[in-house]
Amino acid sequence: MWTTKTFLTKTKRGNILKIVREHYLRDDLLCGSAACNICPHKDDEYILDSKPHSICALFDYEHYLILDTNVVLHQIDVLEEDALTNVIILQTVLEEVKHQNTAIYQRLLEIIGKKTRKFYSFVNEHHKDTYIERNPGEKQNDRNDRAIRKAAAWYASHLSINNLDGQYPQIVLLTDDENNRKIAQEEGIVCCSVKDYIENVNGFVGLVDKLSKNVIPESCSKDALYPAHLTPTQIHTGIRNGKLYQGTFHASRENFLEGTSVVSGFEKPILLQGHIGINRAVDGDIVAIEILPKEEWRKPSDIVLEDKADDPGDLLEEDTELLTSVKPIDTSDDEITPTGKVVGIIRRKWRQYCGILKPSKFPGATRHLFTPAERKIPHVRIETRQSDVLASQRILVALDSWPRNSRYPLGHFVRSLGPIGDKNAENEVILLEHDIPHARFSEAVLACLPPDDWTIPEEEIKKRVDLRGLCICSVDPPGCTDIDDALHARALRRAGPRAYEVGVHIADVTHFVRPNTALDKEAALRSTTVYLVDKRIDMVPDLLSSNLCSLRGGEERLAFSCVWEIDENANVISTKFHKSVIKSRSAMTYEEAQLIIDDRSRQDEIASSLRVLNALAKKLKRKRLDNGALLLASPEIRFQVDSETHEPMEVQAKKILDTNSMVEEFMLLANVSVAERLARDFPQCALLRRHPAPPPAYFHTFLKAASQQGFELDVSTNKSFSKSLDAAVIPERPFFNTLLRIMATRCMQQAVYFSSGTRTQEEFYHYGLACPIYTHFTSPIRRYADVIVHRLLAASIGADVTHATLLDTKHADALCDNLNYRHRQAQYAGRASVALNTHILFKNRVEIESAVVLAVKRNALQVLIPKYGLEGPLYLPSDKFTYNEEEHFQICDDVILKTFDELTVRLSLDSTNLQHRKLVFQLVKPHIPGFSYEPEKEGEKMDVETVVAEKSNPEDNKGKSTQKKKRKDNAEIKSKKKIKK
Amino acid sequence: MPGPDLLSSQGLRLDGRRPNELRRIRCKLGVFTQPDGSAYLEQGNTKVLAAVYGPHQASKSKTSTDGVVVNCQYSMATFSTGERKNRPRGDRKSQEMSLHLRQSLTAAIKTELYPRSQIDVYVEVLQADGGAYCASVNAATLALVDAGIPLKAYACACTASIAWRGSEPEPLVDVGHVEEAAGGVCLTVSSLPSTRSVALLELSHKLHMDYFDVVLSRAMQGCRDIEVILDRAVREHLAEGWTKQDVVTI
C-alpha cells in the first residue's frame, strides 16, 4: 500500500531550527478522469467527463482546466457561477489558498463538494510522478508554480497514454501570472489568462461582470495618489524593532477620513486621519502603523464628514477641512491622542458589501461607482454592462484591490438582491450586512426533525415526571408563537410556616436537537433567533419553534422543569430539576394575565396561581434591588404592522406591566439556580454569563451631564449607583429618571457568555443583576446557549448522557465566542430593522414632538424622541452656536443647550439619498430666530425654506447630507468613545 | 470539533499517509557484538538502538526468587530532537519511560524461567520524531529475540490519535511528531498481539468515552501490523545468520 520513499523537507522557524518531516509519495492516487484507462477507478470516482464540452471560443476542443492559485484567490466569484466545469484543483493550489484566505478556501471546498460542478482535487504533492523538490535558492512561490506546471504536463501525458486515436481531453492552464505563463508556453503547456478565457466564454451573460479587477496595488507608481505600502518583510522587521505597530483598523462612522486602531503599548487607540494617514485601509483590515512624532498628535475630530464626491476622478481633495478643525490648541490637552499613519496592510479583511450603484452621468458607461450601505466602507469602482438594470437594485459587491493611483478601491459585481425599497430586498441587506445566516434550512437539517404529527410516546412519559395535572400557564407578549416558558404555583399543604411550590417549565428543545446532528450544527451556527420588525429568522425549524417545542395552551409538551419550595418571604427552601411532561392550561398575553390578576371576581385555579406568583415576584424583585441590581432602561418600541402590506402603521413605546416583571423574576431565579448547579458540577465547562463592572472612566461624561442637572451620582458600586439613580428624580419631569437610566445603560459593557474553565470565580459576577453567578436557561427555542445549558443540566441530573464536545473547555470557549458574536449581530440587525421601519413610517408624515438631548457634539446635538424611541443628530450651524468643550454645551445668544435638556423638534424624512434615507430633526423650541423651524409657515413654503437654508449654510449642509439612521449601537459606541477620551 | 485538521479533504494525513497506515519501519537485528542481543529500528524518522545483556546473576539488592528482574534504561541522545537536549537520561521523562518499558517487557518475557537473575535492556533514542516509546518497545523486543531470551509473544507498541472527517471520527494510527504536536489526543498501547493482551495503555489528553473504543482498536490493529513486520525481520535475520556470522563464531 505505502511506498517507501522518504523525502525530507526543511523549514526555518524563528531562531533557525531545522525541521525534518517525512513526506510519503504514493502510487495509488487517482487522476479522476473518465478518459483515463490507467488509474484503477471505481465507478463513483470519475469526477471529470471523458468528453468535456468546451464553452470557450479560444479553445474549441475538449479540455480540462487547471487553475493557478492567484486565479482561485481572486476569481472565486467567477468559479462559483455554474459556468466552468471539468476543473482540476491541485493540492498545491488548495494548500496555498488555505494559507492565504480561509474564507475563500471554504468556498472552494464547497464548490469541490458539488458533484455537478465536476471539480476534482488532485493530490499532486503526494503523487510519485508529480512531486517536485524545491531547488536550492528557489523561492517557495516559484517552486509551487513549477509544481503546478509539472502536474499539468503530467496530466497531458497521462491522458494521452493508451488513447492513441487522439480523442482525449487537452489540459489548459489558467493563470494570471505572466511569468508562469511564459515558462509554461516554453514547456509546451497550453495556458491562458483568466480574463481572456472568460471574455470568450459563450452563453453565460454577466460572467464577465464578476471578473475581479485585480491589479497588484503597489505596481502602479505612475500618477500615484497614495504612498506605497511597505513590503511584508519591511513590516515584519519594523514591528520586531518596535518602530511599527500592528492593529485592526476601525473606520469612523461619522467621518470617512478618520479611523482608529488599538495597538498594544498605547492606552488610547491610535488616531489615523486623512487619505494619506489611512492610506487605503478599509474597516477591519489588520494594518501596520507608524506613530507620528508627538508634536503632530491631534484630537479626534468631532465633526461629521461624508464622502460626497460624485466620482471626481482620481484626485484626492485637500484634507484641510478636517485637519484645521482638529489642530491642537494646547498640547497638554488630555484629549490629544497618539496619531499615526498606515504604512502597510498586513491582512485585508474584505467581505462582500451590500449597497447601490451611484447614478452615472453618462448613459451606457461601464465604469460605475458603488456606494456601500455600511458607512465605514469607502465607495467602490466596479465595471458592469448591466447598469440600467442594476441602477434600481440593491446589489452585492466584492472588493478586489486598491491600486495606488485609484482614489477608490476596485471591485466587481456579485449578485443583485432586489429592487431598492422592496421590503424583502431591504431585509436581505440587513441580514447580509450583519452576517446573519438566513438561508432556508437544508435537507439534511430537515431530515433530523420528527414527523409533523409527532406525539409524545408512552415510554418517554414513563421516563419523566408527569406534571400534566398541575395548573401550568404561560405568559408572553401578544403574537408570540415560540413559547418557551410556563409557570405554576400552589400553596403547600403541610404543617409549619406557609410555603409555596413554584415551578418554571422550559420547552425541552434538547429532546429534539440531538448533539452533532446537522440540526444541532445549524442551530449552533445561527446561535440565536433574529427578530426583525416583520420577520423572524428562526434558530431551529418552524416545526420545532412554533409547534413541538412551543408550550401551547391545552397541549401536552415535553419540558425541563425547575421546581422550588419558596416560603412566604420569597426565600428558596429547596430546588429540584427534572424532565417532565406538562399540559399548559392557558397561554396568555401579559395584558390578559394582568386582567385576571386584577379581576377580583375570578377565584379559579389560574387566577390564584397567578396572584401567588405575582406577590412572590414582587418580593424577589425587592430583594434583588436591595442587593444592588440596576434597573436599566432602553427606549423600546413596537410597530403595529399592517397585516396585508406588512408596512408599519403606528409606533408605540412598549408598555411594561406587573406581569412582565413577574415572568422576568422567575426566569432570573431559574437561571441563577441552574447556574449554581452547573458551576458546582462542571467547574471546567459550564456555560455561564457574566457582566463585568464598567471601568469608572466610562461614566465620566455621564456624571458631568448629570451634575449639570444638579445630581451627584455615586457609581463606585452597583448598589450605590442604583440608590443614587433612584434618588435622582425631578417631579415635574417624569421622563428624566428613565432618561438617566438609558444613559447609564450606555456606559455599561455588554454581558457575555463564557465557559467557567476560562475565568476565575470572582469574574463570574453579573454587575447589572448583582448576582455572583448567572446563565441562560429559559429560552432554548431561540438561544443556543440555553440548549447547551439544558444538555449540561440534563447530564448533571442523570437524565441524559454527556458527549465529547460538551465537556471540552476549548470547544466551549470557541462556542461562547460565536454565541457572543451572533448575539451582538442579532441585536444590531434588530435595531437596523427598527430604523428601516421608522423610515417607512415617516415616509409621508411630519410630526412635532418633544425631545431630550442625549449628548452634545461639536456641530450637533444627539436627541431622543421618547414617544418613538427615535434618536438622531440635530445639526447646529457654527455661525450661530458656540461649542463649549469643557462643559459640553452649545450656546447661542442667551440659549444654552446641554445634555438632558428638553426640546421640541420637528421630524420629517429626507429621501434625497436612497441609500441613506434619514430622519431630519429641526429645532422648534427653544426658539432661535433664523434657525428654528417656524410652525406658522406651513406646507410647501416650509420645504423651500429648508432647502434655501441648507444651501446658504455649507457647514449645516454637510451635516444634513449625512445619514441620520437611528442606530442605538452607533450612539452607544459614540458615547463610550467620548468618555474614553 | 476539537483539534486541528489532521486529515485533508482527500483523506490523506499531513505526511501523505492514509489514516490506517503505519510509517515506514526498517529494522536490523544483531547490530552490536558486545551485548548479548541488539537491534536497530527506524519508524519513520524515529530511530532507536536497543541492547540487551543477560540473563546474568542479579545484584544483591534486586534479586527476586519469583523470576528474572528486568532492568531497563531509556535515554535520548542529545542530538535526537530539534533543539539540543541537555540531559540524555535520568530526567523525569526518561525515568518514566524506563518504568514503562520495563512493564511492557516484563509482560513479554517468560520471567519464571530465570529466578534470581537479571536482564538489562538499554535503549538509546537517536532521533525522536514522535512515538519514541513505541519504537523503543519494538526495538527492545527484537534485541531480546536476538539475545535468545524466551518470550511469550512479541511485545509491540503503537500510538493512535483521532481526527475528524466532517463530523465522523477517524482514528489515525502511528502518530508522528507533527500530529502529536498539533494537540490532539495520543493513545499509546503496548500489547502482545498474538495473545491479544495489553501490557500498557497511556492516554495523553482527555478523550471522550464514545471515541475510546475506535481509537483503541486502531492502535491494536497497528500493533498487529507491527508484529508482522518484526516477525518477518526476525526470520530474515535468522536465515542469513546461520549462513554467515554465527557459524564462524561457533
UniProtKB/TrEMBL annotation, chain A:
It is found in: Cytoplasm; Nucleus, Nucleolus. GO terms for cellular component: cytoplasmic exosome (RNase complex); nuclear exosome (RNase complex); nucleolus. Signal peptide: none annotated. Transmembrane segments: none annotated. One of its GO terms (biological process) is nuclear mRNA surveillance of mRNA 3'-end processing. Pfam families: OB_Dis3, PIN_4, RNB, Rrp44_CSD1. Keywords: Cytoplasm, Endonuclease, Exonuclease, Exosome, Hydrolase, Nuclease, Nucleus, RNA-binding, rRNA processing. GO terms for molecular function: 3'-5'-RNA exonuclease activity; endonuclease activity; RNA binding. InterPro entries: Dis3_CSD2 (IPR041505), NA-bd_OB-fold (IPR012340), PIN-like_dom_sf (IPR029060), PIN_dom (IPR002716), RNase_II/R (IPR001900), RNase_II/R_CS (IPR022966), RNR_Ribonuclease (IPR050180), Rrp44_CSD1 (IPR033771). Its cofactor is Mg(2+). Residues 464-799 form the RNB domain. Gene3D superfamilies: 2.40.50.690, 2.40.50.700, 5'-nuclease, Nucleic acid-binding proteins. Residues 63-182 form the PIN domain. Residues 934-944 have a biased composition (Basic and acidic residues). Residues 932-981 are annotated as: Disordered. It comes from the Eukaryota. PROSITE patterns: RIBONUCLEASE_II (PS01175). Belongs to the RNR ribonuclease family. This is Protein DIS3 homolog. It comes from Parnassius mnemosyne.
UniProtKB/TrEMBL annotation, chain B:
Keywords: Cytoplasm, Exosome. Pfam families: RNase_PH. The keyword Lipid metabolism does not apply. GO terms for cellular component: cytoplasmic exosome (RNase complex); nuclear exosome (RNase complex); nucleolus. It is found in: Cytoplasm; Nucleus, Nucleolus. GO terms for molecular function: RNA binding. Its main location: cytoplasm. GO terms for biological process: nuclear mRNA surveillance; poly(A)-dependent snoRNA 3'-end processing; rRNA catabolic process; U4 snRNA 3'-end processing. Residues 21-150 form the Exoribonuclease phosphorolytic domain. InterPro entries: ExoRNase_PH_dom1 (IPR001247), ExoRNase_PH_dom2_sf (IPR036345), PNPase/RNase_PH_dom_sf (IPR027408), Ribosomal_Su5_D2-typ_SF (IPR020568), RNase_PH (IPR050080). Non-catalytic component of the RNA exosome complex which has 3'->5' exoribonuclease activity and participates in a multitude of cellular RNA processing and degradation events. Component of the RNA exosome complex. Belongs to the RNase PH family. This is Putative exosome complex component RRP41. It comes from Parnassius mnemosyne.
